[in-house]
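[09:14] KT: can someone run the structure on this one? pasting the chain below
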Amino acid sequence: MFRLPRRFLTKVFLSLLLTGMIQVLLLGIVAVLFSNRMIEETYSQHSHERMEMLLNRVNLTIQSYRESATQLAKKPILTKALNSSSPLNREELSTLYSTCYRELGSGIDEAAIHLINLQGEQLYSTHMLPSRYNPNGADPSLGTFLKLKPQRETFPMVDGFTNPKGNEVALSLFQFLESEGFNKSLIIYDLTCDLFTKLLKPINAGFFSNLYLFDTINYKFVRLDGSNEWGNFSEIDWRVPITGEGVIQHEETLVAYAQSYPDELMLVGTLKLDTVAGNVQALIRFIFVISLIGLILSSILAFLLARAISHPVTILSQGMKEMESGNLNVRMEETNGDEFDILIHGFNDMAHRIQELLDARVLREKALRKAERHALQSQINPHFLYNTLNTVNSLSKIHGIQDITTIITQLGKLLRNAMDQQSEVGTVENALALVEGYLEIQKIRFGENFQWSIHLDEAIKNFPLPRLIIQPIVENAVIHGLEPLVGKRQLEIEGLNDPPRLLVRDNGKGMDGDCWEKALNNTEGIGIHNVNKRLHLYYGEDAGLFFQHENEYTTIEIRLGWQLKEDVNEA
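[09:31] RB: done, structure tokens below
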């Protein structure tokens, strides 16, 4: 069970967490510091745009009623009603009222038409006539209107009042009628606050807290939201220019205004900044909640990422510690398929390779020791044996026994080579020199019936060859192949360079494939199996011993690699 290192996990977790938190905190700080200003600027821009839409709707409404008044003024029945010295009869009066009602259309409850003769001789109205429009009444408002607008044939007038029906009148449209030979008369359209509320409410959509209609000539105002509020400019705390359009801030109120051209009307909307501040506070709370959620999510994500990063690193660290302690069998499981798996895969390959190299070295050393152990049959006192052979050799020379001299000389060479343990690797030429001494001894033994030859390519003479590779193969050919044979015995050794290989060929008793496989796999023997294993260890899997029997000749091929392994050269 691997334990996560707390220090590394904590460092990764904090680094990932800070990376996410810094962005969230910076965003929150910027939003808190600049949200108020940005929202106010946004509200100012929206106020200007919203005011333009509202004013367009007011202008269209006024223009439509103005055109209605112009069309009504052209009706003959209207001219007759206002300028006739006698009252209209019943049929004419019905026609007059029908004409006025048709001009009002569906807005009969939101507007009224009044026809006034300024001399007070005739008065006609679709609704009850307000007292201010009666020239003979006590209210002098109409005369004031006429004095203020002496040069206009048609003009609007803001002077809020409640009509006899109980509705608040927001705007009055005056249309003068003056023809040659007739007295001056007036057509008055009274437009209620309910009419404007109905028209402007969908456009305003609760944006402005209050909407006002200003008259910049007589400095009157009226609210358009049905609050029954009207009066003079002086009654309002904030002020706006009487021309142009724009947005101003007065204390805790945002005021947007726009002029109705070419008339002297102005539409004004107000918005309490505490509403804006409330939105700012709501935004700050929203940002705080989002930041808190982001912090929690960042913490969870940072922890998961930190654990995902630290866990494979921990596994690698633990595996290295186990390998340092000598456990070369440690392996780690690849799971995620990411970059860490590449490291884990490399670690497993490295451990496997080290294990293979150590196993190969151990096997090679065992094989070498085994070969040397069997090659040195006289380990009790090899120096004494060597000195004794020199004594026998001297005596054979004195008595003229040449065969004994030859045998003792070659046997001494073999014994000296067996005793030399300074070098593990020699050359092909040196190995065949020892084999040649062995064959000289066998020549004396078998006599003229034994013939041998060695053919060596110049290019392979100095090729590196481990000790005791050729000797066991030649001995095996002599003992098991040629010794049981009656008659002529032949043995040939050939060294070729491309590819590097040695061929040992004899005309002995021979063997079949089963016997060869049995000898090759005999782990108790010191000959074929041992040599084949050592060739694999020194040169690689492509090297080894190969058997062929053809035309009464048995050929053993000693296939060498192109070069010794690097670890062998270093050894």
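[09:33] KT: thanks! The chain has 14 helices and 19 strands.
[09:34] RB: yep, looked fine to me
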